[in-house]
Amino acid sequence: MPLVDRFVVSVDIKGFSGLPHGRQERLQLALARVLDAAAETAGVDRERWDRRGDGDGEVAVLPGDTDLALMVGPWTAALNRRLADHNDDHLPEMRLRLRVAMHVDAIRPDPGPLGHTGPALITLARLLDSTPLRAALDAAPEANLALMISEPLYRKTALAEVDGLRPWQFERVRVDNKEFHENAYVHVPPAMRPPKPPKSLKPPKPSRPPASDRRGPLDWVVPKGSADSGRVRLDMAPPPEPEPVPAPPVPEPPVLAPEVRHLLDGIRDALEAREIVRADLLTTRVLLRAAERERQGCLRVADGTGLPDALFTEIDDHWAEASGGRWGFAAQRLGSTDVALSGRRGELRRLSVLFGWLKDVDEIVPEYAELMLRENRDRPFFPTLRNPEAETRTNWDDEWTSTALSVHVRLRNWER
């Protein structure tokens, strides 16, 4: 049987064995989605990996043409971002934190479930289960993952300073696990926390002058004991009346582009025809078009700030008229005043429960077809801001989260 060098990687969920069965199942699904999304972001084809699920993690043998530096660098960074997205979007008990091990060494084909055996997989298991890797993750409670790479992989990537990797990013540790005694290198990516909102900038209060210096325009200071003591000088001319300041012109409402106007008319026509789903999809589309984000298929949180009030008002008028005021942006804003919005992903889950999109904050986001079965007139269910065409992509729920947060953060400053 051929013996070849291959890149191997393994991940393990921290604290998995102590969780209830139902929570374990949800974390297993979340792990698969996070790994798929990280691979897509880094440009890695996971369909070519030989993988084996281990309940609380995964072991994979990658193709012979795998870019080692890509896996150690961009893929790990993408995995950290995806874990941050998941953890920011869920309650603490559903937090997903990983130990990750990587190695490159010899393997050979095997009829077992992974299809391979050999020294590479034995070393990988020792690294993943090592005390230094566990300690690194425990020492950084805010971190999403801790990575350990073997010394051969370290020499080929970080020590060679390939693709942005540098030796100082890794800490050398000693792994003593059973009969395994070798050096390895640990890297803990920084936790990705949303920035704190800036403090409001208030103009400084003018300093109050001493009482002796506070004089009006007709005040006259006369030294005590002088001949004029006790008199009031009346020959001072009063100050001139200030010139009236003209009122600022009332700005004209923004003129919506013809293609945006066409889509708004489509929403109205669809609702009049009781074609709720079509109106819902057109609502998402018109917001993407107004922000010039149709090609990307989603809004970033910052994109909402550039959308005009008039656009939200017209969309809301159509939905409110069709539902007797139960649906629309005004109803959604009114029904969510208790949820503080700063653009953090977990906030959308709380909104989703209020609107009827999710049954609870831990539920996996349903695909659009399933969501439509939950249509609810007793809650501000529409518009959902979903884009079903994007559901062919691995990270479609992340794109929807970004779009919905962009809109609802903007709605807090919407003036009808």
UniProtKB/TrEMBL annotation:
<feature type="compositionally biased region" description="Pro residues">
    <location>
        <begin position="191"/>
        <end position="209"/>
    </location>
</feature>
<dbReference type="Pfam" id="PF05419">
    <property type="entry name" value="GUN4"/>
</dbReference>
<feature type="compositionally biased region" description="Pro residues">
    <location>
        <begin position="237"/>
        <end position="249"/>
    </location>
</feature>
<feature type="domain" description="GUN4-like">
    <location>
        <begin position="266"/>
        <end position="334"/>
    </location>
</feature>
<dbReference type="InterPro" id="IPR037215">
    <property type="entry name" value="GUN4-like_sf"/>
</dbReference>
<protein>
    <submittedName>
        <fullName>GUN4-like protein</fullName>
    </submittedName>
</protein>
<dbReference type="InterPro" id="IPR008629">
    <property type="entry name" value="GUN4-like"/>
</dbReference>
<feature type="region of interest" description="Disordered">
    <location>
        <begin position="185"/>
        <end position="249"/>
    </location>
</feature>
